[in-house]
Amino acid sequence: MTRSFLRDDDLTAAEQAEVLALAAKLKAEPYDHRPLAGPRTVAMVFDKPTLRTQASFAAGIAELGGHPMLVDGQLAGIGKRESVADVARVLGRQASQVVWRTFAQADLDEMAAFSGVPVINALTDDFHPCQLLADLLTVQEHKGSLAGLTVVFLGDAACNMGNSWALAGSLAGMHVRFGCPEGYAPAASVLESAAALGGSVTVSSDPVEATTGADVVVTDTWVSMGKEDEAAARRAIFGPYAVTPELVSHAADDAIVLHCLPAYRGSEIAAEVIDGPRSVVWDEAENRRHAQKAIMTWLQDR
Ligand code: NVA
Question: 130, 80, 85: which is closest to 112 by C-alpha?
């Protein structure tokens, strides 16, 4: 059966470790592995804004010897002009893999069911698993290993990044804490899935309690794509969870800070933190390419 990467727990813990090890190898030898030579085409479809994802997939596909085919989601009108299933059947006849950023996870599932080729989640409303591979690679580089580390995710945990940290962090054997207002924890079904994976997941509405002693501090925008209408209300709700120098002072002395970007300095993260010595966000952004090369290579080999 064709494997896809639609959510973080589509990989087992052992497979996640294998993909991360492959990412490190591809980072060390960026031009030596060409599983997409031909060139094979990978379709990249975007229904939401993108910078890092488009750039890192396009560069990564090229480095693997393949050809990145950009499909404009607006022009294609997926699910409007024609059904997801029909688009999937067509793209599967042109491309070796399909990378899709869209809204509904159910649409991504349908793409995978009908395309006949590996489908990779490049962000949905529910999950952002490629970002998590990059994040874990970054933590592994800076901390040496993942299992047993404590990570705190602060702010809006009821979004794709919160859900993905719950799953991917647990798979890696990390202790994942969420510091978020009531009603903004990851989805209950996701927390239930995470509980069976390893590590641990806890939720606290007290940002200091959640952050105390953490090895890794993570945040994300308070206004995810598609939630722009709620921006003003969200700024008020999440204020106490802003990653400020004061809040970070409660983390471990050698804690690192991650942000998937785009970042809003003065909202979810202070400029002194994201531009300060604990920040590893530029490594994290670069690692999108290496991590995504690894998952594409891994899927191509199935
Ligand atoms: N939660 C954010 C992630 C951006 C990469 C969003 O969905 O907009």
Answer: 85
Ranges in the chain, pLDDT < 50: none
Residue 217: CA count within 13 A, CB half-sphere: 34
- Distance of CA 139 from the midpoint of ligand 1 (Å): 20
130 is catalytic: no
Residue 225 CB–ligand 1 contact under 6 Å: yes
Res 26: pLDDT: 98
Q: What is the pTM of this model?
A: 0.98
CA distance 15 to 294: 11
Query: What secondary structure, in 3-state letters, does 268-301 show?
Result: CECHHHHCCCCECHHHHHHHHHHHHHHHHHHHHC
Question: Tokens at residue 160, please?
Answer: 């794709």
pLDDT of 92 reads 98
Q: How far apart (Å, rounded) are the C-alpha atoms in residues 61 and 42?
A: 7
Tell me how far the alpha carbon of residue 124 lies from the centroid of ligand 1, in angstroms.
9
| Residue 16 CB-half CA count within 13 A | 27
Task: Report the chain's C-alpha Rg in angstroms.
Answer: 18
Say what the pLDDT of residue 1 is: 83
Structure tokens at 263: 């970042």
